[in-house]
Amino acid sequence: MINRQWTVAEHPENELHASHFGYKEIELDSPKDGEVLLKTHYLNLAPVMRMYMMKDGGGRSPEQPLNIGDVIHGRGVAEIIESRHPDYQTGDFVHGQIGWQTHKVSTLNSAEKFVKMAPRGVPAYYGLSALGMTGYSAYCGFISRGEPKAGEAVLVSGAAGGVGSLVVQMAKALGCSPVIGIAGGPEKCALVTSLGADDVIDYKSEDVASRLSGLFPNGLDIYFDNVGGEILDASLTNLAKGARVVMCGAISEYTRKTPFALKNHGLLRRENADMRGFFVYNHAHEFDQAEEAIADWIKSGQLRALVDIEDGFEHMPAALMGLYSGKNKGKRLVRVTPGEDLIY
Amino acid sequence: MINRQWTVAEHPENELHASHFGYKEIELDSPKDGEVLLKTHYLNLAPVMRMYMMKDGGGRSPEQPLNIGDVIHGRGVAEIIESRHPDYQTGDFVHGQIGWQTHKVSTLNSAEKFVKMAPRGVPAYYGLSALGMTGYSAYCGFISRGEPKAGEAVLVSGAAGGVGSLVVQMAKALGCSPVIGIAGGPEKCALVTSLGADDVIDYKSEDVASRLSGLFPNGLDIYFDNVGGEILDASLTNLAKGARVVMCGAISEYTRKTPFALKNHGLLRRENADMRGFFVYNHAHEFDQAEEAIADWIKSGQLRALVDIEDGFEHMPAALMGLYSGKNKGKRLVRVTPGEDLIY
Q1: Which of A87, A141, B115, B135 is placed for a possible disulfide with B130 were both Cys, Cβ 3.0 to 4.6 Å?
Q2: List of chain A residues whose C-beta atoms are within 8 Å of the C-beta of residue B242
Q3: Contact: B269, A262; criterion CB under 8 Å
Q4: Min Cα–Cα distance to chain A from B265, Å
Q5: To the nearest whole angstrom, how far is the Cα of A207 from the nearest Cα of chain B?
Q6: Which residues in chain B are contacts of A248 at CB distance < 8 A?
Q7: A-B C-beta contacts closer than 8 Å
Q8: Which residues of B fall within a CB distance of 8 Å from A278?
Q9: Which residues does chain A have within 8 Å of residue B51's beta carbon, measured at their own beta carbons?
Q10: What DSSP letter does each residue of B229-297 carry, written as one string?
């Protein structure tokens, strides 16, 4: 059994280049007692992966820093094609920390954060979008950290992205008003409107700060932040009393050598407002609840997963690099073997 | 009746100078129906007052910006020496927005945030320290925004100041551990230790960041921030999961022309930690509860008010300027008429 892998060939310093990625093929052993053999069907792409690849994880990586030659971290949806594990059978699907490789032998222990997927008759890639960490990030970040109430004014950046597109739909489903997205370019903005957002700010052609004061005359109650940087800073000038800024991601900052210098945090005081850090794995105890709530919204037609699927394991590096130039609409995934989408 | 006043003579840009203050004496009318005549006994001094005096309130003032010639904002403890108000009698004491003046005719309406003091047999200046906004700031900031639990690790900056010295004692009374203060110079550090702090960092002679990692091997649960700037930024590198940074004050930033640029806010994400803005007047609904809790702690000997009293209304400008150079120990007040302390 040949396992194909993408590894760290060089540590990136700022922008990613093809030379940072190494490709190799290795012979895989058969699973031993307590192990399963996984075949990867879909692999996730996320802005934080560049940080994983930096020397010492850029000093801020939430995952174990990678050395030269290590397989790049990444979650995938995989099928168990051979099982010597009592809790799993051939044909079961899981999502978890597979890494950038086509196969893996694993004990499926908790360190690799594997979750057994419930068969729901939906595309299997949902395990990487609405019914996986992307969905859990949107749900736990928005619900547990944002604490939304009906009628509250909500802003979501990265609103055409994997997490952001789900948060926009959740905010609408919960009766928040208005729900405003931020995205880049007319095509993405149209997509955000199609998800039900009341209005969209195009950060590439509009002045975000002045649009915000027009759209939120009474201030923001929740800002769900996927981008960090200038847009985070601008949001702080426009907060309602008791506002919550959920710091989920910071794609605009991941390619900086030095952290973005925030200037408006002092405005939190006057409004008794919060900046609330969020990292999805701190909410593992809420994943079951998130999964059920999201599955219900999918069933009732209130929520759909936006995915942007690239075909072919060989395109992993290019697919990741495209993420930083803002090309993707919805959650960007790679389908390892081109073909039809599996239903599970 | 002659009323003595300190006014804004020039708007300060950064450091305060004597030339920014104007002095005048005016004839005061007698109170009309619904009004009282107040005689000021004690006046408060607070870092935020410089911001009040800046042009347009420095753009960030929580109180109405002051024009040239306006009486400077400030809270005081005053005695009602003549009443034509149905709810107040001669001899009652209040604390509230009197301004930098020796007398005031007032309707005691809510805009001036007057609070009628309960006679408790304590020095009347307690209405500006533990049993006034200083105490309410410590209580509402620490209890409502910090949400302390017994056993949690607490850091308090400005720990020899008015609010900070109370927070240190409240943290100890609630069983937090360790409770660490930050103050400047050996004299103030000794004072913080005398309040029960488990250890003190002298920011003038020690490296705060390296002391923090030694004192909080498992990270901070609560940082009660009175200073902002570099110390706030350093605290963010040392947070426990779910930590709360209560942003109460920012004395190190008030004399800056441009806001301090924060660099470590991104670390909130990994720890699911919060920066929580706090402004005491957003908690008016909790003042009664705060007053009762603080009075109980005073009675049981678990809490004492640190005050640093300067004698004489004529010294108001010098007393305020001294605050920024870190001279005060405890809450700095001016006793308008030198003499013995009134008990009320």
Answers
A1: B135
A2: 282
A3: no
A4: 8
A5: 21
A6: 269
A7: 108
A8: 269, 272
A9: none
A10: HHHHHHHGGGEEEEEEEEE---TTTTT-SS---B--TTHHHHTT-EEEE--GGGGGGGHHHHHHHHHHH
Nearest CA in chain A to B63: A270
From chain A, the residues in CB contact with B60 under 8 A are 266-267, 270
- Cβ of B247 and A261 within 8 Å? no
Query: In the CATH scheme, what is the homologous superfamily, with its name and number, of domain B133-281?
Result: NAD(P)-binding Rossmann-like Domain (3.40.50.720)
| Average pLDDT, rounded, for chain B | 94
Chain A residues within an 8 Å CB radius of B273: 276-277
The residue ranges of chain A whose pLDDT is under 70 are: 255
What integer pLDDT is reported at residue B331 of this predicted model?
86
Sorted by where each begins, the domain ranges of chain A are: 2-129+306-335, 133-281
A293 beta partners? none
Q: Do B272 and A270 touch (CB under 8 A)?
A: no
Inter-chain touch B228–A266, beta carbons under 8 Å: yes
Q: CATH assignment of B2-129+306-335, given 3.30.310.80, 3.90.180.10, 1.10.1610.10, 3.30.70.1350?
A: 3.90.180.10
Q: Please name the residues in contact with A136: beta carbons below 8 A apart, sequence gap of 6 or more.
A: A280, A283, A286, A287, A290, A291
Contact B266 A248 (CB under 8 A): no
User: What's the pLDDT at B58?
Assistant: 84
pLDDT at res. B59: 79
Q: Which of A93, A1, A82, A119 is nearest to A40 (CA)?
A: A93
Question: How high is the pLDDT of residue B109?
Answer: 81
In this structure, how many other beta carbons lie within 10 angstroms of the beta carbon of residue A25? 11
Contact A272 B268 (CB under 8 A): no
Cβ-defined contact of A272 to B282 (cutoff 8 Å): yes
The alpha carbons of chain B give a radius of gyration, in whole angstroms, of 20
Taking the C-alpha atoms of A115, A118, A124 and A125 in order, what is their torsion angle to the nearest 10 degrees? -50
Alpha-carbon distance of A307 to A144, in angstroms, equals 24
Residue B255: per-residue pLDDT: 66
SS3 B302: coil
- Give the model confidence (pLDDT) of A233-254 as tens digits: 999 999 999 999 999 998 888 7
CB atoms within 10 A of CB A223: 29
Dig out the tokens for A240 from the structure: 């309602």
Distance CA B344, CA B334 (A): 17
Q: What is the pLDDT of residue A324?
A: 85
CB A115 within 8 A of CB A87: no
Per-residue pLDDT band for B232 (boundaries 50, 70, 90) equals: very high
Rg, C-alpha atoms of chain A: 20
Asked if B247 lies within 8 A of A269 by C-beta distance, the reply is yes
Angle at B224 between CA B219 and CA B229, to 5 degrees: 90
- In Å, how far is B52's CA from the nearest CA of chain A? 14
User: Per-residue pLDDT tens for A160-176?
Assistant: 999 999 999 999 999 99
What gap in Å lies between CA A45 and CA A54, rounded to an integer?
16
Say yes or no for a CB contact (<8 Å) between A272 and B279. yes
Q: Which of A78-92, B16-30, B136-150, B255-269 has the lowest mean pLDDT?
A: B255-269
